[in-house]
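Narrative of activities, Objective 1.

The group set out to show that a structural description can be obtained from nothing but a protein's sequence at a throughput compatible with the screening campaign. Below is one input-output pair from the validation batch, recorded exactly as produced.
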Amino acid sequence: MSYAEIKRTALENILQLEKLNHITRHNQYQDLLNAIAIDIRTKRRRRIQRQRELEGVRLTLARLNDQAIYLEQQLKTYNDYIEQAMVTLQNKKGKKRFLMPFTKQWDHERELQRSGRVPKFGSFKYSAQDLANRGILVSWRGFTERQWAHIDLTISSNEVGIFMLEGSNGPISMPGASAQVPLDDLLQAQYNNTQFLEFFGQSELKVNVNLFLHLIMRKFYKDRDS
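Output recorded for this entry:
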């Protein structure tokens, strides 16, 4: 900005201040001169004050950063503890279960053992009708309730906190009827008061959240005697 432009801008601002009755030409704009003089006298003091305020902000940010690091460490410790607790719980075998020979679960476990595909934390097979009778299965698109006795759902876990839900018709797996179900998702749904969850994409399977979660907790995290 040139000197002429600065001068013109200053005059425009002076006239605007006079129009607002902040200064007057009747005293040769003495109020403006006084304000400039005060500004000059207090400039150093205000600079020091700003420096102190800036230093205070820096100290506050440093403390907040230290607190954030501490909380992150605490969160990591907590998550590690929860993860280890989940491993311990899911590894807990409890009493050896007696399986009635020639039942669906007995056949299922024998087949897993023969094929060498026994999941680390267990596998449980139910007919859709059984899960419906328990209130867990609400609906399964493409199948009528009369067909539920002939189709099965398997819940297994080979990784802590992760469950596989798979549908089958007899020994034959159903295309697309497979879903990975993290325990965290079920707990979050329960916390959000979500009543139902759906799996399997287009072949939509709807389950009751609370009852499904109860089944998983009972089968994978308690003594396996039922």
